Amino acid sequence: MEHELVGLAGPGGRWRPVAAGPFALLAVVLALLPIRPVWLWAALIGVVAAVPWALGLLPDRRRGRAYWRLSAAGLERIGPDGEVLASYERDRIDALAITTGDGVLTVFHRFGRTAVGGLTAMGMEPLAVFVTARRLGIPVHVLDGEATDLMDPAQDETMRIPGLDDDVPEGSTLPRDHAAEKRLLDQEAALLAAAHDPSGEEPGEGSGGEGRPAPRGGAGQRLDTPEPLPSRRRIAALGALTALLGAIMIVRIALDGTGEFGARLAAGCWVLAAFTGVLVARRRLLRAAQVSWTITAERLLVRARPGRRREAQDLPARDVAAVVVGPGLRLDPVSGEPRRADLAALAFGHRLELVARLPAHGLDGFQLAHALDDHGYRVITPGARAPRRPEYGLEGLPEIFAQVPGGRLVVADGGLGWADAAGDVVLKMPEDRIGGIELLTISGHAWVRLYDNDGDEFFAAPLSALRISRTDLRDSARRAGLPVNDAEYDAYMSAAFHSAVSTLTVPEPGTEPEPAAAALSSQSAGQEGPAPLPGPSGEQDAAFPAPPPPSPVTAPGALLDATRRSRVGTYAMSVLLCEAVALLGAVWLGPELGGFNATATWSVPAGFVIGLVGYWLHDRDRSQLRVSSAGLAVVTRRGRVEWDLPRDRIGGVGIDEARERMPRLVVWGPSGRVLRHIAFPPDLGELRRACERYGVPWGPPDADRPASPPPEL
């Protein structure tokens, strides 16, 4: 059908154990029983342990799941065999409602209301239901509250309060249900604009339509979620080793004899440990699946399940009118039921039909949206994010600042002062108290920081609150001999100097002149006659050699190391891991080496020394982050450069706050792409100050509210 929405449902065919818990308990009970002969005892344990996996191979256990469908026939629930399990005919549906409290879909009909179920359990997204139902001619409403509030029609009049449902006064915020419905209407309008763009590409045409935005991302881009820790191979190896160890111990106990209850109890513990290890490894393997996106101007290739035999979702670009990136649904890897996801992508076609659900959990939403936009796709997001505010306040402003009307900051008598409207200085800070004045930019606004002689910050405020411009404060303080640091202005002047002098450099013999140099020489030729020919040495008299600009490794800056706490913690973890291996080795090999006590007397000290010395060898060449006005670089203590990024490629430095993975310190590009990961954790306060001191943006790039350029630069 043209307008049809099929709910998200788990496909059949996955091998999963059936009733693993009861069969594990039965295997433990059999291990405790004194069954004779012992080969029958061991065989029964093995057969019972294999029954759950054998049941998972049965054909009727591997069928698909029931799903919901919204089409011209109405709202239906289809079983695995295609039979209709529940049906709400189209001609009997007056309207649909989605409650904001619990997300339940309610059907309004001529005899009342019926709560069908939660949209998450039905595998449907609110936007997809909203758009599809309106295309079918079914009104859709968003109601504040829960579905239980709609079941009693008598509450409509008894609970109505006069004046509560009147129009919202002008200037106030919308109610919750109105705001949610307005957001859905805005997204639908954006989809309509993308699908019915007169200059856009129609379905069935080639992938190079004139209306599609020109791709800016090159040949293609690949986005992957980070690899799980531990890796999938290690998880599978640990699960297999646990099962193998349990089987070997059962066989060994059977060979030694099961006459004593202690031996059978040990066998039961090994059976339980093997079952638990295999089930935990399987669960970790399913949850460790990675999501991989390959974005090109011609197609989208998304792979969300591990294994080479799994077919990826291949979506041609000509079938996609727009991609909605935001919160959505995904299949639970263990149970196969729909669950909420922080990030998902819905691809809509040119007739507003849902073409595909593309999983994106684990990816960065900002990075995904910009990658799709760079390759020519229309991207729609749920709404603008809240602007990021700087984490600074005006707590350091003295009270006299507010008590003096028209006051402003001035440089007087070799120090700083606060002058009133008449120009009289009412508050003075002498020069001997000022250890440094730092000018920087925070969220596009000029700020000043004051440091004492010990290097501690004691005052910070925006220059707009102090009623002085950045240029006046910098020039006045430098004329008075005060220590002023304006790294952004100095970097700007250095870049301007290099760009001006680079046109005066002489090209090497056999190379073409630069466009700027050629233009300069042509202008000189037009004004002053023919250019002088180079002398025998190949040099010109008017050439001024310019030194190359400093690189992120050689430029002066701040060198940030890992925190002392993290280093001590890593030392302790290394030693504890070696001690654990030493103790396990003493338990495992103790009987063959003279007993546990004798083995532990030399293995425990050896583990301590190995852990301490091993990490010391690694720590003496640890990585350090170098922040400068030329960019960022990670160098080791021995001088080896791991990576470096120039300033023009950096869009921001900060914490990647992802919910399904550990927060990481990353470097973003100007478009929001993650360029580098910083493996070691430096002090965030020092990193923030170093970034602001040397003009490196702190925090991820903000697409909704881009910061203005630094004032007076």
UniProtKB/TrEMBL annotation:
<feature type="compositionally biased region" description="Low complexity">
    <location>
        <begin position="507"/>
        <end position="529"/>
    </location>
</feature>
<feature type="transmembrane region" description="Helical">
    <location>
        <begin position="39"/>
        <end position="58"/>
    </location>
</feature>
<feature type="region of interest" description="Disordered">
    <location>
        <begin position="153"/>
        <end position="174"/>
    </location>
</feature>
<feature type="transmembrane region" description="Helical">
    <location>
        <begin position="235"/>
        <end position="255"/>
    </location>
</feature>
<keyword id="KW-0812">Transmembrane</keyword>
<feature type="transmembrane region" description="Helical">
    <location>
        <begin position="261"/>
        <end position="281"/>
    </location>
</feature>
<keyword id="KW-1133">Transmembrane helix</keyword>
<feature type="transmembrane region" description="Helical">
    <location>
        <begin position="595"/>
        <end position="617"/>
    </location>
</feature>
<protein>
    <submittedName>
        <fullName>Uncharacterized protein</fullName>
    </submittedName>
</protein>
<feature type="region of interest" description="Disordered">
    <location>
        <begin position="196"/>
        <end position="228"/>
    </location>
</feature>
<feature type="transmembrane region" description="Helical">
    <location>
        <begin position="15"/>
        <end position="33"/>
    </location>
</feature>
<keyword id="KW-0472">Membrane</keyword>
<feature type="transmembrane region" description="Helical">
    <location>
        <begin position="568"/>
        <end position="589"/>
    </location>
</feature>
<feature type="region of interest" description="Disordered">
    <location>
        <begin position="505"/>
        <end position="557"/>
    </location>
</feature>
